Amino acid sequence: MSARIITGMSADEYHSDPLPTPSLSSSIAHTLVSRSPLHAWSQHPRLGGVPREPTKSLDRGSLSHALMLGAGKELAILDFDDFRTKAAREARDAARAEGLLPVLLKDLDAAEAVAIELRKRFAEYGVALDGQKEIVVTWSETADDGSEVLCRGMMDHVAIPIIDDLKSCRSAHPLACQRHVDGYGYAIQHAAYVSAIEKLHPELAGRVSMRFVFYELEPPFAVTPVRLSGAFRELGHRRWRRAINAWARCLREARWPAYVDGWTELEPPPWALSQDVAEQMDDRDNDWKETAQ
């Protein structure tokens, strides 16, 4: 399958994976290499299909994306004080069932003000958000055994040859961003999305770059723009290749193992052995002191 952009696809449709065969996304790839094929199978909408329950934090992040990008889920503006009443919860659930993002009317003005402030801060770092937004790209990767792996990605913002991904977070401190990149698989996302754009535009091979913009939704609305180092990019590329090969094998064999295939013998970790030796030395010292007395 040649790389292509699919226009007019909603976020819900994208996340349902409407492609001809179960496709590999960067988030599934992260689960595959950081946990196991069984966990990836369980998470994938076309396989195990265990849904991710919406949370207040996810809704806030989705709302900020929608307001800053002017794209994403359509809003369902609900005139309630909160979601504690039965009527409010039913309206919220009905909106979600229709693929809408529920937001309280009383929260909308504040959210729009935050989005305006964040766009100003983004612009200070040269992130104008005036390119293509929330675009769906499908492409194929070739596994080491020669089989083709169908892949998909939904990119926040693309202004060729630059991809921007927006990440709302509790802390945008650089050390926290470092943990997010590794812990949430953003290095894999970098490898996948750069590969996708290079397949769309082969003439740009080696010149496509991806940036991450981490931002806080609480005052003072700190923003941390991030480019991944060469070491981080190489790590992401290796993990992406591992995921491609594992995905191809699992689909071919229709087998999705968990962490192990059989009995595993566990050895004590080095720190436990070191701690035990230290405790034995302390016991001997105490015995010597009591004898000396």
Q: Identify the strand order in the major beta sheet.
A: 1-4-5-6-7-8
Q: Can you count the helices? A: 10
Strand coverage percent: 15-25%
Radius of gyration: 24 Å
Assigned CATH class? Alpha Beta
Are there runs of 5+ residues with pLDDT below 50, and where? none
**Distance, first to last CA:** 82 Å
Give a brief rundown of this model.
This protein has 293 residues and is α/β, with parallel strands linked by helices. The chain has helices at residues 11-16, 26-34, 37-43, 56-69, 86-97, 105-124, 174-183, 186-200, 230-253, 270-292, and strands at residues 4-6, 75-78, 101-104, 132-142, 148-159, 162-168, 209-215, 223-226.
Per-chain topology:
Layout: E1 4-6, H1 11-16, H2 26-34, H3 37-43, H4 56-69, E2 75-78, H5 86-97, E3 101-104, H6 105-124, E4 132-142, E5 148-159, E6 162-168, H7 174-183, H8 186-200, E7 209-215, E8 223-226, H9 230-253, H10 270-292
Parallel strand pairs: 2-3, 6-7
Antiparallel strand pairs: 1-4, 4-5, 5-6, 7-8
Helix pairs in contact: 2-3, 2-8, 2-9, 4-6, 8-9
